[in-house]
Design a protein that fits this description.
The N terminus is likely disordered. The two termini are 20 Å apart. 24% of the residues are buried. The protein has a domain of 66 residues. It is mostly beta strands. Helix content is 0%, strand content 55%. The protein is built from no helices and 14 strands.
């Protein structure tokens, strides 16, 4: 059974963190990225890796009648994704 989230979701990403909602259902909620990212270096090297700082990743989720806000503050960050199938994100909300 997939988890159901029917109230407000506030996802606060902090330094070098990543939140993921995999195969969830968000109904009438709010997803907020309020991460503050300063002077970070994030690197993905190899194959099919993720370099993520202050990001929210939403994969195979159903978002119904919800609000999505990205209030992420990013300053002097470096994100590198080097190699086949690698992804680099900073202060993002990603839907897959």
């Amino acid at each position: 059974m997939k988890p159901s989230i029917s109230t407000v979701i506030i996802a606060i990403s902090t330094l070098l963190s990543c939140n993921a909602f995999a195969e969830s259902t968000v109904t009438s909620g709010i997803i907020v990225n309020q991460s503050i990212n300063t002077n970070n270096k994030t690197i993905a090297i190899g194959t099919n890796n993720l370099a993520s700082t202050g990001a929210i990743n939403i994969k195979n989720a159903r978002i119904i009648k919800s609000i999505i806000l990205n209030k992420s503050i990013n300053k002097d960050n470096l994100t590198i994704a080097y190699g086949e199938g690698n992804t680099g994100t900073t202060g993002s909300i990603i839907f897959e």
